[in-house]
């Protein structure tokens, strides 16, 4: 009797925790409307899950960066929360809050952030259509976007 995991099941893209987190997020976002995404991830607890998932899915070793990114996530009711992604070549970590001292700051709607993270929305398109605002070091922001697109 075989008691281990099935050997023929496909592994999520990226493998390991990073691949599982990214695959789970893609499945959750696929086909969901903004209201459902906000109900799920718009609470304080939902934001913790979202940003921990983003940090786990970020390919820190490939980015080779040591920096911070402040992200203000807005809901459709106008409520915004700031989070900081701490990026090092070893790992990415998320923490609530933001000081504004980060070299790059983003402001984006919650549903759009989820769609970018799930690969359903291109970050450049979000920027060009005013769905996302970027302040600070634009070259660094473009470098981060390039890393995420290669996931």
Per-chain topology:
Elements: H1 16-29, H2 34-41, H3 44-57, H4 60-63, E1 67-74, E2 80-87, E3 92-96, E4 104-109, H5 110-117, H6 123-128, E5 132-136, H7 138-149
Parallel strand pairs: 1-4
Antiparallel strand pairs: 1-2, 2-3, 4-5
Helix pairs in contact: 1-3, 2-5
Q: Key features?
A:
five-stranded mixed beta sheet; alpha+beta; 151 residues; disordered N terminus; Nonspecific Lipid-transfer Protein, Chain A; 7 helices
Please explain how this structure is put together:
It contains 7 helices and 5 strands. It is globular and about 35 Å long. With 151 residues, the chain is α+β, with helices and mostly antiparallel strands. It has helices at residues 16-29, 34-41, 44-57, 60-63, 110-117, 123-128, 138-149, and strands at 67-74, 80-87, 92-96, 104-109, 132-136. The longest helix is centred in the N-terminal third of the chain and has 14 residues, at 16-29. It has a 5-stranded mixed sheet. α1 crosses α3. The model is unreliable at 1-15 (pLDDT under 50). Helices cover 44% and strands 21% of the residues. The chain has one domain (16-149): SCP2 sterol-binding domain (Nonspecific Lipid-transfer Protein, Chain A, 2-Layer Sandwich).
Write a short abstract of this structure.
By secondary structure, this protein is α+β, with helices and mostly antiparallel strands.
CATH class assignment: Alpha Beta
Strand order of the largest sheet: 3-2-1-4-5
Q: What percent of the residues sit in helical stretches (DSSP H or I)?
A: 40-55%
Q: Over the alpha carbons, how many angstroms does the gyration radius reach?
A: 16 Å
How would you sum up the major sheet?
A: 5 strands, mixed
Annotated CATH topology: Nonspecific Lipid-transfer Protein, Chain A
Q: Any idea how many domains?
A: 1
Residues in β-strands, percent: 15-25%
Q: Indicate the structural class.
A: alpha+beta
Output the CATH homologous superfamily: SCP2 sterol-binding domain
CATH architecture: 2-Layer Sandwich
Average residue pLDDT: 80
């Amino acid at each position: 009797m075989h008691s281990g995991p099935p050997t023929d099941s496909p592994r999520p893209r990226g493998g390991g925790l990073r691949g599982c987190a990214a695959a789970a997020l893609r499945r959750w976002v696929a086909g969901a409307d903004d209201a459902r995404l906000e109900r799920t991830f718009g609470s304080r607890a939902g934001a913790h899950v979202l940003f921990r998932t983003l940090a786990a899915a970020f390919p820190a070793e490939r980015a080779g960066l040591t920096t911070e990114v402040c992200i203000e996530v807005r809901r459709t009711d106008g409520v915004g929360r700031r989070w900081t992604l701490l990026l090092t070549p070893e790992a990415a970590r998320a923490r609530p809050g933001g000081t504004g001292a980060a070299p790059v700051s983003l402001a984006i709607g919650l549903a759009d952030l989820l769609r970018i993270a799930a690969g359903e929305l291109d970050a450049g398109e979000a920027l060009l259509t005013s769905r996302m605002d970027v302040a600070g070091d634009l070259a660094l922001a473009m470098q981060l976007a390039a890393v995420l697109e290669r996931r």
